[in-house]
Specification:
about 210 residues; mainly beta; Tumour Suppressor Smad4; 3 domains; about 25% strand; elongated
């Protein structure tokens, strides 16, 4: 059966050795065909669309701070909290993929002693070498890396980073486990707020909307 090249522009059947159609179209990249091939292509009909299979749900542990952690982690990769007592759940989105529809972190901020407002939009370390370093540079009782703030869908979480003089939330001294703060909570760095001598402390108010 004779082969030929079909011009993409005018549809003319050209000799398979031709490099250019009579209409001027370049045929060097056009594959030769014949009546049998063309008939089979017409009878095959349109190709069926490929249906992508959605990814299988992955087991995760959801920390109170809102982070979805792989099952092999013992501590939250966002806030450092313990995970082993948190039951497994199924996440409909692969852990490394995007998370459409995920609940965003609530709007959190700190009200400073001078009346200014410090927004907390991501995990933030407070200290003389962290956030608020300018406000804390003359506070020798505040550690260089004093405490960490972790905003999430459930609000603001605070944990101490092994500071020398401690971190207090509403009068309770914090450890390395994150503790949730409420709107209006009092956060105190570098000293017991109930002690007689409070000259070295730095007190802030938590704002959550």
């Amino acid at each position: 059966m004779d082969f030929y090249k079909i011009c993409p522009d005018c549809g003319r059947k050209n000799d398979p050795g031709r490099r250019r159609c009579a209409c001027g179209r370049d045929l060097t990249r056009v594959s030769a065909t014949n009546d049998e091939i063309e008939s089979s292509l017409r009878n095959r009909g349109p190709e069926e669309p490929v249906i992508e299979t959605p990814p299988a749900p992955m087991p995760v542990r959801v920390c109170p701070c809102g982070e979805k952690n792989p099952v092999n982690l013992r501590k939250c990769r966002r806030c450092g909290g313990e995970l082993m007592d948190i039951p497994l759940t199924r996440d409909s989105v692969p852990e490394e993929g995007p998370r459409p529809g995920e609940t965003p972190a609530r709007a959190c901020a700190l009200l400073l002693p001078d009346g200014s407002r410090f927004p907390v939009t991501e995990a933030t370390v407070l200290g003389r070498e962290g956030a608020l370093r300018e406000a804390l540079k003359d506070r020798p009782f505040v550690s260089r890396r004093h405490c960490e703030l972790i905003p999430g869908p459930e609000g603001l979480f605070v944990r101490d980073l092994g500071s020398t003089n401690g971190t207090w939330l509403n009068g309770q001294r914090l450890g390395c486990e994150p503790r949730r703060a409420e709107n209006g909570s009092r956060l105190v760095l570098a000293g017991d707020p109930e002690a007689q001598d409070v000259r070295g402390i730095y007190a802030l108010t938590v704002e959550i909307k």
